[in-house]
C-alpha cells in the first residue's frame, strides 16, 4: 500500500456535513445584522457593551473550560445574546461581569457544553437584573443625527463606581409604559425597532428574518418560536377580548424581548427539548408564562423568567414525550 | 401491498454508486493462497476436518458445522492445506482459519457433478441440501440460511420478502446480480417458497435501480405470486424490520424475529446462490463483491473466491491510489475498517470500500449539544443522545432498560451527529459488556465491563 498508515475507525465511515462549530458560528453570523441594527439605533456604544459581554463570556471559558472549548463558538453566542438583552447604556464592567457569570454559573459548573439546564445568557441577565436593578432599567431612547455618536448612559464607568448624573435622554420602554402607565405604542414602531428598549428588542422584523434562515438550515426547531408566538397571540387575544384594557396580540408579540427570546434564546439546542412534541409543550409553557408575568407579575418583561422556568422542565419533558420504540405496543418508553 | 412503501426516520447518505453501478461483473483469477476462517457466519464456528498437508478440491468440506445454528466451510479453490492457523479476521480478532495454497492453473469452471433435480426434493431435503452447501445470508449478517428456511412448527410464515434494496452507499453487488442474473434470482425465490410452503413473495428494490427493477419484472414467473416492488431510496431501507414495514406494513416487535409476523427475509444474492447450488452442485465457494471507493484504481464488481485476501483483491483491481487511507469490509455505514492486507473476505463480505483521504470522516468529537438529530434519524425510535450519555458513564443496565437491545447498529445516529460522537461504537461496546456479563453471571461484578471507552480519535484524520 502507499506509505500512509491505514485509518481504523468505527462505523459509520461517512458523516453528514454539519458540525457543531459550524452550527454555532452560523448562529453568531446571523446575529451580526441584529447587532448592526442595534448600532444603527443606539450608536457605537452598543458595540462596546456587546464586546464587554463577549469578553466576559470568553474569559472563563478559556481559563476554566476544557482546552479548545472556544473554538466551537458557544461562548461567543452566549456573550452576544447576553449583550443583546442589555440596555445600550450599561456600564461595560457590568456587561463583563454578566458574561462571566453567565458562562461560569450558567454553563461551566454544570459540566460545560451540553450539560447545562438553563440558558446561560439568561442566567447572566438574571444575575445583572438582580444585582444592578437601576442600571439594568435605564433605557436611553434611540439616537438621531449628531447625537448618534454620543455614548449612551455610563458605558465607560469604572467598576463599582457610583453612576454619575448624566446628560442622557431616557425613556420608558413600551412594556414599561404599558404596565406602569397603561399607554400603548404604535405597532409599526415596535416592528421596525424605533422604540427604546434593550439592544436586541428593537428590530423584530430583522430577527424574524435571521431566525427564518436558521430554521431553514435546521439549526433551530421552528416549532419553538411558532409555539411561543401562537400561544402568546391566542392567549392575549382571548384576554383582550375579555378586558379591552389589556394589550392585544400585536403589542404582546412585538414588544419587549419576545421575538429575540423566542427565536434565539428558547431555541438554544442544549436547553430545549429533544423531541418535537416536547418542543411544542415547552413553547406553550413559555407563551403562557410570558403573558401572565407581563400582565400580572411585578416586572414589565416576562420573557427571561418564562424561558428559565421552562428550561427547568425540559428534562421531564424529554422523558415524558419520548416516542414508542419500533414495534412496541402503545406504552411509551419510560426512563 | 399493505405497506406505504416507505418507513419513518432514517437518513439520506450520498449514494456514491456511480463508480460501479454500470460495471459488469467479471471473474477475478485465483490468488496464490486462500484463507478460510472457520467463523464466517452467525452462530457457532465450524470445526476443522482437514490437517496440514491434506489435498482438497474446490468444494470439499474443510470445516463441518457445529450444531444447528452453524454452517460448514468449503474450500474455494483446489490446492493443499498448508496449516490451520490463527489469522486476522475481519472483526478485528485473530481467529482459527484454514490456509490453502492454491494449485497453479486451477480452473474456476465447475466440474461435472451429480446434481439432484430440486423439483423432486421435498422441503426438508431442499433445506438440508442448502445447509450442506454452506449457504448463509449474503447481505452481511451471514445468518445460516437453512435455519431461516425451517422455522419452528408453531410459527406460520405467509410471505417471503427478498431484499434487493442495497441501501448502503457505494455497494452495487445486489444491483449487478439483479441486472445480470435475474432468472437465477427468480429460481432462488421459487426454491425458497417451496422450502417454506408459502404462496407469496415480494422482491423489494430501491428506486435508484431502474434497470434491476425492469430486469426482474421482465423475468417474473407467470405461475407464482412474485411481485417486484419499487421502494423509497433511504438508508436503512434494506434492514429487515424497515423492509417489512415498508412492503407489508407490519412491525416486528422488540426482541422478536420477522417470522413472528409471518415473514422470512432473504437477500437477493442469497436467493441467486441457492439457485446456483441446485444448478451447478457447488457449495458456497465464491460470491460477487463490489470493490470500490476512490482509494482503488479500478472500481469493479467481481466474482471472488471466499477466502481471498483483501491485498490480493485490491491488486487485481489495479492497486491503491496515492490517497487511499482506509479499507472497509461491507458498506461505509456499518462496515468494519481493516488493519491488515492479509485479512480474507468471508462468505458475508459484500463489498470492499477503499476510502481515500477526502472520503473519510473527521474523527475529533465535540460534546453532545442535544440537538436531537439522532432521535430524528433512528429508525427504531430510540433516544441515542440519552443512550450515548449513559454509555460514556458505563451505565450498561440503564441502557438495557432504555431498549439498547433494539439498536441494530445501523449507524444513522453517528452519521447525523454534528459533534461526531461515535454513538454506534459506544452502543456496540455496551452490548458487548452486557453480553459478557450475561455469559458469566456468578463471577462478575462490574469488573466484567471493558475499560472506559475512549472518544473517537484513533489517529489524526
Strand order within the widest beta sheet of chain B: 1-14-13-17-15-16
β-sheet strand percentage of chain B: 15-25%
Can you give the helix content of chain B as a percent range? 25-40%
Assembly category: heterodimer
* Main beta-sheet annotation of chain B: 6 strands, mixed
Question: Largest interface, with Cβ-Cβ < 8 Å?
Answer: A-B, 45 and 72 residues
Series of secondary-structure elements of chain A, N-terminal to C-terminal: HHHHHHHHHHHHHH
**In terms of per-residue confidence, which ranges of chain A show pLDDT below 50 for 5 or more consecutive residues?**
331-335
- Taking the alpha carbons of the first and last residues of chain A, their distance comes to 49 Å
How is this structure best described in words?
- The complex is a heterodimer of chains A (335) and B (461).
- Chain A contains 14 helices and no strands.
- With 335 residues, chain A is mainly α.
- Chain B is built from 13 helices and 17 strands.
- A six-stranded mixed beta sheet of chain B has the order 1-14-13-17-15-16. In chain B, strands 2-8-7-4 form a four-stranded antiparallel beta sheet, with no helix packed on it.
- In chain B, helix 1 packs across helix 4, helix 3 runs parallel beside helix 5 and helix 4 crosses helix 7.
- At the A-B interface, helix 1 of A face strand 15, strand 16, helix 12 and helix 13 of B.
Amino acid at each position: 500500500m502507499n506509505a500512509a498508515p491505514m485509518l481504523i475507525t468505527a462505523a459509520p465511515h461517512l458523516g453528514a456535513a454539519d458540525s457543531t462549530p459550524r452550527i454555532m458560528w452560523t448562529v453568531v453570523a446571523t446575529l451580526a445584522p441584529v447587532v448592526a441594527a442595534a448600532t444603527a439605533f443606539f450608536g457605537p456604544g452598543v458595540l462596546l457593551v456587546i464586546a464587554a459581554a463577549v469578553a466576559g463570556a470568553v474569559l472563563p471559558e478559556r481559563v476554566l473550560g476544557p482546552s479548545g472549548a472556544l473554538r466551537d463558538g458557544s461562548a461567543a453566542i452566549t456573550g452576544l445574546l447576553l449583550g443583546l438583552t442589555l440596555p445600550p447604556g450599561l456600564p461595560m464592567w457590568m456587561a463583563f461581569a454578566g458574561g462571566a457569570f453567565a458562562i461560569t454559573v450558567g454553563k461551566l459548573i454544570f459540566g460545560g457544553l451540553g450539560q447545562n439546564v438553563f440558558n446561560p445568557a439568561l442566567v447572566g441577565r438574571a444575575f445583572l437584573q438582580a444585582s444592578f436593578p437601576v442600571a439594568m432599567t435605564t433605557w436611553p431612547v434611540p439616537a438621531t443625527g449628531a447625537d448618534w455618536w454620543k455614548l449612551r448612559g455610563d458605558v465607560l464607568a469604572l467598576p463599582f463606581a457610583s453612576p454619575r448624573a448624566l446628560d442622557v435622554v431616557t425613556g420608558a420602554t413600551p412594556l414599561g409604559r404599558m404596565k406602569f402607565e397603561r399607554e400603548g405604542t404604535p405597532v409599526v414602531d415596535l416592528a421596525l425597532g424605533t422604540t427604546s428598549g434593550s439592544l436586541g428588542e428593537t428590530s423584530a422584523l430583522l430577527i424574524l428574518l435571521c431566525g427564518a434562515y436558521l430554521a431553514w438550515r435546521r439549526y433551530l426547531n421552528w416549532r419553538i418560536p411558532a409555539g411561543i408566538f401562537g400561544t402568546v397571540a391566542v392567549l392575549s387575544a382571548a384576554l383582550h377580548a375579555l378586558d379591552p384594557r389589556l394589550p392585544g396580540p400585536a403589542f404582546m408579540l412585538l414588544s419587549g424581548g419576545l421575538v429575540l427570546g423566542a427565536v434565539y434564546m428558547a431555541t438554544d439546542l442544549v436547553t430545549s427539548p429533544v423531541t418535537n412534541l416536547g418542543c411544542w409543550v415547552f413553547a406553550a409553557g413559555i407563551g403562557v408564562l410570558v403573558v401572565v408575568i407581563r400582565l400580572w407579575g411585578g416586572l414589565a418583561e416576562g420573557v427571561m423568567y418564562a424561558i428559565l422556568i421552562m428550561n427547568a422542565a425540559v428534562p421531564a419533558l424529554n422523558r415524558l414525550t419520548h416516542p414508542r420504540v419500533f414495534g412496541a405496543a402503545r406504552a411509551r418508553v419510560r426512563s | 401491498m399493505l405497506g406505504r412503501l416507505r418507513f419513518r426516520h432514517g437518513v439520506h447518505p450520498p449514494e456514491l454508486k456511480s463508480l460501479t453501478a454500470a460495471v459488469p461483473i467479471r471473474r477475478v483469477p485465483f490468488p496464490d493462497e486462500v484463507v478460510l476462517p472457520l467463523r464466517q457466519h452467525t452462530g457457532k464456528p465450524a470445526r476443522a476436518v482437514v490437517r496440514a498437508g491434506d489435498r482438497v478440491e474446490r468444494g470439499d468440506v474443510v470445516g463441518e458445522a457445529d450444531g444447528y445454528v452453524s454452517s460448514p466451510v468449503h474450500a474455494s479453490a483446489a490446492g493443499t492445506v498448508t496449516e490451520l492457523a490463527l489469522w486476522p479476521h475481519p472483526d478485528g480478532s485473530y481467529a482459527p482459519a484454514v490456509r490453502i495454497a492454491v494449485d497453479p492453473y486451477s480452473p474456476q469452471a465447475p466440474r461435472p457433478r451429480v446434481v439432484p433435480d430440486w423439483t423432486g426434493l421435498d422441503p426438508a431435503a431442499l433445506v438440508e441440501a442448502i445447509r450442506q452447501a454452506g449457504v448463509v445470508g449474503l447481505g452481511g449478517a451471514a445468518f445460516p440460511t437453512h435455519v431461516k428456511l425451517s422455522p419452528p412448527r408453531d410459527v406460520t410464515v405467509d410471505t417471503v420478502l427478498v431484499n434487493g434494496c442495497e441501501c448502503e452507499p457505494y455497494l452495487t453487488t445486489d444491483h449487478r446480480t439483479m441486472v445480470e442474473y435475474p432468472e437465477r434470482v427468480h429460481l432462488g425465490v421459487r426454491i425458497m417458497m417451496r422450502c417454506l410452503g408459502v404462496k407469496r413473495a415480494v422482491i423489494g428494490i430501491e428506486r435508484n435501480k431502474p434497470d434491476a427493477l425492469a430486469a426482474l419484472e421482465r423475468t417474473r414467473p407467470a405461475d407464482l405470486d412474485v411481485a417486484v416492488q419499487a421502494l423509497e431510496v433511504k438508508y436503512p431501507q434494506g434492514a429487515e424490520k424497515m423492509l417489512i414495514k415498508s412492503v407489508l406494513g407490519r412491525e416486528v416487535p422488540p426482541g422478536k424475529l420477522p417470522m413472528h409476523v409471518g415473514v422470512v427475509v432473504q437477500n437477493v444474492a442469497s436467493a441467486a446462490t441457492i439457485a446456483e447450488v441446485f444448478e451447478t452442485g457447488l457449495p458456497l465457494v465464491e460470491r460477487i463483491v463490489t470493490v470500490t471507493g476512490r482509494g482503488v484504481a479500478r472500481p469493479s464488481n467481481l466474482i471472488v473466491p471466499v477466502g481471498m485476501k483483501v491485498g490480493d483483491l485490491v491488486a487485481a483491481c489495479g492497486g491503491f491510489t496515492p490517497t487511499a487511507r482506509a479499507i472497509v469490509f461491507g458498506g461505509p455505514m456499518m462496515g468494519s475498517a481493516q488493519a491488515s492486507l492479509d485479512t480474507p473476505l468471508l462468505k458475508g463480505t459484500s463489498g470492499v470500500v477503499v476510502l481515500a483521504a477526502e472520503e473519510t470522516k473527521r474523527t475529533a468529537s465535540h460534546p453532545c449539544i442535544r440537538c436531537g438529530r439522532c432521535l430524528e434519524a433512528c429508525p427504531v425510535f430510540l433516544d441515542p443522545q440519552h443512550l450515548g450519555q449513559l454509555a460514556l458513564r458505563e451505565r450498561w443496565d440503564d441502557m438495557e432498560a432504555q431498549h439498547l437491545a433494539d439498536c441494530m447498529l445501523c449507524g444513522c445516529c453517528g452519521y447525523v451527529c454534528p459533534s461526531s460522537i461515535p454513538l454506534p461504537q459506544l452502543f456496540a461496546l455496551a452490548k458487548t459488556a452486557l453480553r459478557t456479563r450475561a455469559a458469566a453471571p456468578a463471577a462478575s461484578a462490574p469488573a466484567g465491563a471493558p475499560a472506559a471507552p475512549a472518544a473517537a480519535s484513533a489517529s489524526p484524520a
